[in-house]
Specification:
single chain, Helix Hairpins, minor pseudopilin epsh fold, three-stranded antiparallel beta sheet, 3 strands, binds manganese (III) ion
Length: 200
């Protein structure tokens, strides 16, 4: 199937003051659109034209770098927009997810510190993640367009740490951006939805 840019699930001003209209206009309308356009061009003749996006991501990893980079980023950004909302973030988590964070990640405060640290320590462009592997949560980081899908886990939360995601609003202060993402932007209802789907 060909790739289509989804509309943002909120207004361009909805994430102020933590993420600006200008950031969302460039990040969604320019960067994500480029992954869609380039991905569609590279999908032609790849042998993966009739696969789901998830299968294109897994099927191109390690053998078609151009297609993988764009398909991976398309997948990552589809979810990234939904992992944020106006009035999001903070410690009020859905119950089953809270229990899993307590048992698998050492509680909310340790999750917060470890997730931010994963994003801060990703050298260069990439992502930090919470994913489900074999029924348990784990925190990880990946370079460029990679994600937990290609490493055998199901991502339920991710934060884009490419400079295009924060440079307009935070300049070089990646830690401040990650703190704002966790404390004020995460859409825990969507994380819970992804968690339930991954746990079956
Ligand atoms: Mn991005």
């Amino acid at each position: 199937m060909s790739f289509v840019l989804p509309a943002l699930p909120y207004d361009y001003d909805a994430l102020l003051p933590y993420m600006s209209r200008e950031t969302l206009e460039y990040h969604h309308d320019k960067h994500h659109q480029a992954y869609v356009t380039n991905g569609n061009n590279l999908l032609q003749g790849s042998g993966l034209e009739d696969k789901s996006l998830e299968d294109v991501v897994r099927g191109s990893f390690g053998n078609n770098a151009g297609l993988f980079n764009n398909a991976g980023q398309h997948y990552n950004h589809i979810h990234f927009w939904q992992w944020m909302k106006k009035g999001g973030g903070g410690k009020a988590l859905p119950g089953r997810l809270q229990s899993a964070i307590d048992s698998d990640l050492g509680g909310y405060d340790k999750f917060r510190a470890d997730f931010i640290n994963a994003g801060v320590t990703q050298f260069g462009s990439g992502w930090c993640w919470v994913a489900v592997r074999d029924g348990r949560l784990e925190i990880s980081k990946t370079p460029n367009g990679e994600n937990p899908l290609v490493h055998g886990a199901e991502p339920i939360l991710g934060c884009d740490v490419w400079e295009h995601s924060y440079y307009i609003d935070y300049r070089n202060a990646r830690p401040k951006y990650l703190e704002a993402f966790v404390d004020s932007l995460i859409n825990w209802d969507y994380v819970e939805e992804r968690f339930q789907a991954a746990m079956g």
